[in-house]
Amino acid sequence: MTLHRRLFLGAATGLALSLASLPALAQDVLRVGSYPANPPWENRNAEGVFEGFEVDIVTEIANRIGRTAEIEGYDFRALFVATASGRVDIVISSLTITDERLESQSFTQPYVEGAMGIGVRAGSDIHGLEDLRDRRIGTIATSFPEAWLNERAGEIGFAANNSYDTTANMLTDLMAGRIDAVVNDVVGLRYAFQQMTGLEVAHEIVTGERFAMMMAKDSPLLEPVNEAISAMKEDGTMAAIFERWMGVAPAEGSLTVTPLPIPTPGNY
Asked: What Gene3D superfamilies would the database entry show (predicted)?
C-alpha cells in the first residue's frame, strides 16, 4: 500500500469516527428555552448569563440525567413553538399547567403553587379585582393571567386587556399611565418592583395554578426529568434552591417538597 493511500485511509477513518461521535455529543446537551426577563424565576444578567430559581433547577436536572444545560432566550409566546418544533428539549418560565396546554405539550410535575398579583402605580385607587371595571389592564401574551382574565371579562368588566410580548414593555406602559394596572405572577411583580420606584402590588389573586417545566408532547426525556425532580424534592435540593431565591424555606407539604407523578388532563 502506498504512503498516499495509507494517509487517505487514515484520514477517512478519523473523519468517520468524528462524524459517528456527533450524535452522542449532541445528546449530552439539554436544550432549554427560557423567557429572559422573569426574575427571580429566570433572568439574563448583565454578563448575558441566565440565573434564577428555575435556572438552578434545570441545571441540576441536566447534571442528574448526564447532560449539560444550554439555555436560550425566547419571547414568551415563542416558547410553545420552540418545544413543539423540537428546537428545545424543555422550557422554563414559571409556566402554569392547564388542560388546554396538556393537549399539545407535556409537563413535568409541579414544584411551586403560583398566584397572580395586580400591579399598579403607587397611590392608585385600584385595590382588588372589582376595581378593574372600566380600566385598561396589561398582561403577557399567551400567559395564564391573560387567559384567566379574558375568560372573566364580562364579570370583571375591564375596558381593555392589552397584550404584551415583554414584561419590560408592560411595566413601562404602566409607569407612563398608558394602562391602569397589570396582572402577572405575583412573585415576579414583587421582585421587579424592588428595582423600580412608584409601582406596587395592590392585590394578590390566589388561583391554585401550578408551575412546572414544559416539554414536547410525550418527550422521551419526560420520565427521567420527572424522576430527577422527585429526587431533588426528596433529598432537599429543591428546598435549598427555593430558599436561595425566595428568601424563605418552602412550607411543609408544599409542592416544592412533595414528589408527584407526571401531570395528565384533570390530574395535576
From this structure: Periplasmic binding protein-like II
Same structural domain, 171 and 219 = no
Cell of 126: 385600584
Which residue, chain included where needed, has cell 427571580? Answer: 40
What is the tens place of the pLDDT at every residue in 189-230?
999 999 999 999 999 999 999 999 999 999 999 999 999 999
* Pairing outcome for strands 50-51 and 90-96: unpaired
pTM attached to this predicted model? 0.84
pLDDT digits (tens, 9 = 90+) for 128-181: 999 999 999 999 999 999 999 999 999 999 999 999 999 999 999 999 999 999
Residue 44 exposure: Cα atoms within 13 Å on the Cβ side: 13
Distance CA 138, CA 156 (A): 14
Which domain covers residue 75, as residue numbers?
Answer: 18-113+210-246
